[in-house]
């Protein structure tokens, strides 16, 4: 047990250095043996000192790494030529190992606008290129043809890969989003029954938490304060997710909502954190930390020599989830024992486990496996999908409703016409509301919540060139490929302007989902719109997410006449890193138009939140008074 605890205490950096030290030690032994058996015997060279041995070991290791890199390059060139293909264009940086390119991409991912700098490279090199940071392949593409190959037609050759799994393991564990092969298929079988047609219409569940969220919002607005809509939607989706997954709610909507910075300063108001709120904060922090590991490729452990940066927030996460999992396992053991006593033959039917009408995902998981780590990891992966993606999209939708009051008015008219001012919407209502679906899809097009994803090739393959006059492209084995749905969704050559050439592809225009542009652009090439992935790994909860988002939007528009962004410059602290850069206002496209700061963990979110105000007759009367 003590040895196990010591292993757990090792940081990623220590493990990384230990592996390198072991290789260095083996090399030193080899150098010593060569000196004694070869040089000493045949060339009568005197004995090397320890310093000389270390010196020649370092020299050997340096040349060995250089040889590996060059051999790999030559092998790939030879293999590409033998297949009649050409190598991918490579970004040419100004510093050794393309360190300047890595820094620019890292800065974009951490604090820039999504797609910045990569747009420039695409304009120069095309829609697929190799960044070759620190001499390691890292391919990038925004081409729907290549993304289709990765996700569908060549699915078996593209996996998450060891590099991604090592980076994400401390947060995602062995869950479905971090699994390949048989483990991925196992997780897929576990979760599929909970996203069948019969299970996705949980409108009673949505209504329970939507009512709480809207009442919290009204109370805050009636008091004359703005609301962080992103925080509110995070609580709504989290409470609904924990109820759906566990059968018991985390009750984060019962906690106090945060205040804007200006109110906190003027009133010295403080908010207390509950156990659920601490879990939620740690959950987001862990995702942010693990997402930043990828910026240094396989060398990321060097930044975590003294501590695993995710250890502290993940301990909070585990402290929250482990008792829930343990309780479910205990309850299942007691139930199994009781059933076996009543019917001894029942134990023989363990391989034919069915999902009960009232079973939660947790109930089902404990019937399939008694491994608490597998269960916890699967639940955590589902929580990321159930909370972050839906909350992020609802936040971006609200931003557009604030920015485009005509869209908000038309959408509210559809809500009142189809559902009325107070009736709870049904799944049939949602299906008939075409403009609502158009608003959601247009938001997902401009701000897909997973803007970048990654796969790695198992074996080398050849892809046709975008330019038919050029030879096909060679994709090396074990090469990570980042594909950007965010950038693909904004490509003018894929989405095009409208019939009058007046609306560019970065304009928020729900009409594009209702007019001839659907048939012109999307129908011939459905892979240009992939907010929920595609192929065998397509999101199982896609319809669940559409229903949940639709339900909340309908309830909001039944409760409020309109919405507006809080334009107070003191909503956030003056020096907050989450303040949207002022110089962006002069930029073209959505970067200059939008009024929130898009940042990325595993998913896209609004840094600093989205502070809004809303109006209905009750709030307007209170303001007049």
From TrEMBL:
<keyword id="KW-0479">Metal-binding</keyword>
<feature type="transmembrane region" description="Helical">
    <location>
        <begin position="45"/>
        <end position="67"/>
    </location>
</feature>
<dbReference type="Pfam" id="PF00067">
    <property type="entry name" value="p450"/>
</dbReference>
<comment type="similarity">
    <text>Belongs to the cytochrome P450 family.</text>
</comment>
<keyword id="KW-1133">Transmembrane helix</keyword>
<keyword id="KW-0560">Oxidoreductase</keyword>
<dbReference type="InterPro" id="IPR047146">
    <property type="entry name" value="Cyt_P450_E_CYP52_fungi"/>
</dbReference>
<keyword id="KW-0503">Monooxygenase</keyword>
<dbReference type="GO" id="GO:0016705">
    <property type="term" value="F:oxidoreductase activity, acting on paired donors, with incorporation or reduction of molecular oxygen"/>
</dbReference>
<keyword id="KW-0349">Heme</keyword>
<feature type="transmembrane region" description="Helical">
    <location>
        <begin position="21"/>
        <end position="39"/>
    </location>
</feature>
<dbReference type="GO" id="GO:0005506">
    <property type="term" value="F:iron ion binding"/>
</dbReference>
<keyword id="KW-0472">Membrane</keyword>
<dbReference type="InterPro" id="IPR036396">
    <property type="entry name" value="Cyt_P450_sf"/>
</dbReference>
<feature type="binding site" description="axial binding residue">
    <location>
        <position position="539"/>
    </location>
    <ligand>
        <name>heme</name>
    </ligand>
</feature>
<dbReference type="InterPro" id="IPR001128">
    <property type="entry name" value="Cyt_P450"/>
</dbReference>
<dbReference type="InterPro" id="IPR017972">
    <property type="entry name" value="Cyt_P450_CS"/>
</dbReference>
<keyword id="KW-0408">Iron</keyword>
<dbReference type="GO" id="GO:0020037">
    <property type="term" value="F:heme binding"/>
</dbReference>
<keyword id="KW-0812">Transmembrane</keyword>
<protein>
    <recommendedName>
        <fullName>Cytochrome P450</fullName>
    </recommendedName>
</protein>
<dbReference type="GO" id="GO:0004497">
    <property type="term" value="F:monooxygenase activity"/>
</dbReference>
<dbReference type="InterPro" id="IPR002401">
    <property type="entry name" value="Cyt_P450_E_grp-I"/>
</dbReference>
